[in-house]
Amino acid sequence: MKVSTHRAGSRIVATSVLALLVTLANGHERPLAAQQTAGPSADAAPAVTFTRDVAPILQENCQVCHQPGAIGPMSLMTYDDVRRYARRISRIVEARDMPPYQYDADVGIQKLKEDWRMSDEQIQTIIQWVAAGSPEGDPADMPPPIDWPDPAEFRLAERFGPPDVIIRSDPYDVPAIGQDRWWRPVVPTGITGDRCIMAIETKPSVEGRAVAHHANSSFRVDGESAGRLSEYALGKVGEIVPEGACRKAPANSEVVFDIHYWPNGVDLVDDQVEVGIWLHPEEYEGTYDQTLTLYFLQGGRGYDIPPHGTLMTQGFHTFDTPVRIDSWQPHGHTRLVAMSVEILRKNGRKEMVSMVSNWSALWHHSHLYDDDVAPLLEVGDQLILTGWYDNTENNRYNPDPDQWVGIGDRTADEMSHAWIAVTHLDEQGMERIKAERAARLVSERPGG
Fold it and tell me: I want to staple 355 with a disulfide (CB 3.0 to 4.6 A). Which of 46, 104, 142, 241 is the partner?
């Protein structure tokens, strides 16, 4: 995806705690200016320059977080800014630690919507630029600066306009120091008729992003549960429902919040979390229902990871109707290091769908599968979720490898589940999707 206001804006997370953890994880490095030798001679035309080649890549992938006042621990807005940290940038880009989108590039489905990963070509450009001595190039080649959006605004508004409905949690005071806290207010939606949701974004306050560990929300009607609305965790932007599906917002409903605050040195008064909902027109019904559900890994309901130990846990899920998997979002805390999702077909064949082998609790992503490749499961197929945990000193995010770690809701505990959005089909719907995909494959062939 090329530069767009939406993509850039979707990444802003003004979170002091994340900036601290990212800095600790990546380590510190002496400025390059004090280390490097002289670059190429003035009369040699460098193959790669900052102004012509590197600056556009940084605008597309990095500056939204690495600018004054944003999450990034350093600014990458100017040549002098970038040259100072060039070697570190080259190292973490090559390792695919940045941009922060944990999704293996060589395993499973690769066609994703809202994909933050740099291309191989972009990565090689940065590596070559640093290896050549980080030349600046002609200032006239520098692209114009981007007018970055306000981090206090809804990011998806750049695509869909202002939300049709904004639901705010009741205010809550978060102390600077203390134990984990949970806030579960109930707020009416004001929606008077059943509607289908187009997109959802949960947005903590700018200051609250430093302490909002997660913020989940569900619908309730007449005191009874009426489905999941959304899920938020550190780094996540929002959820987009595929065309033709309907995640229902019930009439006369309430939203039940489940907000986990993590005191982290920020004293907040009357903090609120907002959920923005974009609705389809009233006449839109959607062919099939979509649900967002927390799918457990069975071992995640009770386990202990010993000090300096590791763990693997799995979960197995089947469905009563044919389904399409629209998105997959792993969830864990600081000891989770990898998670995968596979399909065991009823004929015994196993397929790898997605793998994250460099998990970080600093960034939660709802990986949205492209419409042409979103996994389809028949009745009898089985979804296999696997999680790997590392409680040793080899895990760079592990706060204390000497501790026993068990399942629990606190930040110091662990979790073992995945959030998965599923469109529930019937046999006719399944066959229609298969036929549409086959027709597209034929049309894309030469002479098709």
Answer: 104
